[in-house]
Amino acid sequence: MTAVLAAPPAVPMHTRDTRLDAEARGDSAVRLVFSVALWAGLLLVTYWWDRDGGVTDLTGWESGLTSVGRLTGLWSSDLLLVQVLLMSRLPPLENAFGRDRLARIHRVIGFLSFDLMIAHIVLIIGGYASGRWTAVPGTTWDLLTNYGGVLLSAAGTVCLVVVVVTSIKAARRKLRYESWHLIHLYAYLGVGLALPHQLWTGQEFLSSLGRTAYWWTLWGAAAGAVLVWRLGLPLMRSLRFELRVARVVRESSDVVSVHLTGRRLDRLPVRAGQFLTVRFLTSPGWTRGNPFSLSAAPDGRSLRITAKALGEGSARLAHLQPGTRVLFEGPYGRLSSRTRTQRKVLLAGAGVGITPLRGLAEGLDYAPGEAVLLHRYTGQPLFAPELSALAHERGLQVLALPGPRAAPGSVLGPTAGRDELRALQSWIPDLAERDVFLCGPTAWTEGVERLVLAAGVPADRIHTESFGW
């Protein structure tokens, strides 16, 4: 590998292949339908609230607090269920948004629904207490003990408070991924505990056939998606394909690859660049799943995952024994051929973030000169012999960027000099004509995104997977 990009072979470059973006257009339609459905649902429950005198009730102090409290409760309930759908691994949403984008949307909707839920609690108590602070303790006790489902709802609120607090960045930095993931599952319990309260005391849920159908449909869709896509399908696939550890290969002092074999893997709908959430059935820690990227293109006979020892889950990989059974979820991720709309591509990874891009470099269809792989690293480069072979056999152009960070905010390293944008454009003059696939630490991928946007790459042709959670 060299730090300078060789001139591309003198071969004609293909024009845009319209077949490449057929799936991209379908995913765009899913995103549009989701956005319309989200806003339509909020408008619909607002309309029903107004039909019940919601606006009229705003004229009085006591009735006004209660009325606004009802509205914030409706919005919160709607968005809580949307959250569940977002993280249920529903294939149309996974394919259309990808894990990183879904997580960002989930985070925004999550904090908004939580704020609305707290507002609902405060406003309802204030309304029932007629706006008198001295009556708040007694009113709160009365609501908890004499209104159906409110006590269960309070328990659900506690669960959601725990989830929200541990989702704040400062708290996440102090938690292991495995601990954070386990705590985050309490969100399902919190949402589930709210249902009895909504059914027993929420007139907006049961006062008409249309409302009952809407809410039960939304609840059924959320619960069904979790049961099918988060529990049923992973269990079925794990039993069907019987993944086992074939061998463990140390790639560097802190990076290992695990080769997996199984039955009928040619029928597993997996693409190069995607990742699996894996549980190795060996104690301790077998109950905790960790996401690992595929570092080689699937060949129908085996799979390879590669990870750096950053946490407890990835550190255990080096000690796995051949024959260890594997439970898995997935495949997931849009860092694959699904998002490709151009013949030319740039694959850019930092450190162990090269793993899914190594798989893409092998699995994508391209002619010599159409694929450039940019690898940023500070120690020894991963997969150097394999990338060299791909360069020789497939015409992959490898741009190695070794060395320490040149300056705060630098993403390309000392090879690029001070003007990183100019350096990137000189290395890849046709950058604006390419799809860009990025993987690495969040700060690094965000920095590269800024560079390629400044170079003229449209935002919808930048496909990112970061290590953040």
From TrEMBL:
Transmembrane segments: 29-49, 108-129, 149-168, 180-201, 213-233
Major location category of this protein: membrane
Protein's cellular compartments: Membrane
Residues of the FAD-binding FR-type domain: 238-338
Matching PANTHER family: 1,2-PHENYLACETYL-COA EPOXIDASE, SUBUNIT E, NADH OXIDOREDUCTASE HCR
Keyword Metal-binding: yes
Domain of life (superkingdom): Bacteria
Cofactor: FAD
Any single GO CC term annotated in Swiss-Prot or TrEMBL for this entry: membrane
Protein name per the record: Predicted ferric reductase
Lineage: Bacteria, Bacillati, Actinomycetota, Actinomycetes, Propionibacteriales
Keywords of this entry: 2Fe-2S, FAD, Flavoprotein, Iron, Iron-sulfur, Membrane, Metal-binding, Oxidoreductase, Transmembrane, Transmembrane helix
GO MF assignments: 2 iron, 2 sulfur cluster binding; flavin adenine dinucleotide binding; metal ion binding; oxidoreductase activity
Membrane topology of this protein: Multi-pass membrane protein
Keyword Metal-binding listed: yes
Species annotation: Friedmanniella luteola
